[in-house]
Structure formats: structure tokens, C-alpha cells
Amino acid sequence: MRDHVIYESRLELSRLLFADFDPTACGIVAQPFLLKTVMKGKVRRHIPDYLLLTGQVPVVVDGKPLHRLSKAEVEFTFDWTRQTVESRGWKYEVWSEPPAVELENIRFLAGYRRDWLFSPEVLEELREVDLDGVVLGQVAGCLPGRPEPQVRSAVHHLLWNQTFVTDLDRPLGPSHVLRRAA
Questions:
Q1: With 0-12 CB in 10 A as exposed, 13-18 as middle and 19+ as buried, what is 63?
Q2: Residue 29 falls within a domain, yes or no?
Q3: Which residue range(s) make up the domain with 168?
Q4: 142 in any annotated domain
């Protein structure tokens, strides 16, 4: 997506990283709109954290730590927001702490997101080589004429943009098996 998006907490930042890693995401807007209504004689207001634009329906996202989700005011606000958003045919998501290992892997791969930093020739060579089933630690050997650090960083970029995928539920390492994305 490339643009900067504001965030107010590390939890919101983690949602932005996951959105940036999501190939269906084509845009995200912080604090996209104000919801306002009168319920039981009381004015209710809520500004969701994000509007995530995908190839399908928009997704309205609110982030809140797990330990705060059971508070009555939070439950009420999020239930009301869900009903409002879903009544328009959109999706609603409450984002809490993601799995720590997956977050760390995505955070690591985010360092390889900027495509202009990588040799187009090396990227193309990696796309052309059959890496399906190859472990990450052996990728550099598939391009013997290229410097190992250049190949390693290029394959991390291709993992970021999901040309190749691997299991991100365990710490990323040389034994991870690459698969060509569908």
C-alpha cells in the first residue's frame, strides 16, 4: 500500500502490519468516520480505528486488548458498531493481540517490503527457479552466480509480497519450506 497510516498503539500497529501483508488489502483509512446515535436517551459516539479496503467488501476494524473486551462499555460499543456496520453489508472485526510468533515473522518480513531495494534481475531469476518445496536455507544455492546475501534478501522480499509462502506459525528459519503461492 506504501502510504503512512496513523496508529495510536502497538496493537493498532500490529493490525497495520497484517493489513500491509494481506494481498487482498488495497487501502486502509485510519479513524474513517464517526458513528453517532441516540440509544435509551443517551447520545452514543464511536470512531472505529480503521477501514480496510479489500477486493470484496470493506472491513471496519476496532482494536482492543483481550483483557478489555469483557468490559460492559466496550462490549456495548462493539456490539452496536457491529450491528451498524453489518447492516450495510460490510464486515466488522475486533482486533486483539495476534499470535506472537506470527507477528514477529511478519514484522521481520516487513523489512523487505520495498521492492525498489532489490535487484529486478535476482527477483526474476528467483521467480523462474522451481523453489516449491525448497527449504529457505538452500535458496542461495539455487542461484550460484549471485551473492548469497543478495539472494537471501530477495527471497525474503518474495515472501513479503507472497510470491512464495511458508509457515509463519513458528520462528522463521533455514528449515522453512517454501511453496509457490496459489
A1: buried
A2: yes
A3: 100-180
A4: yes
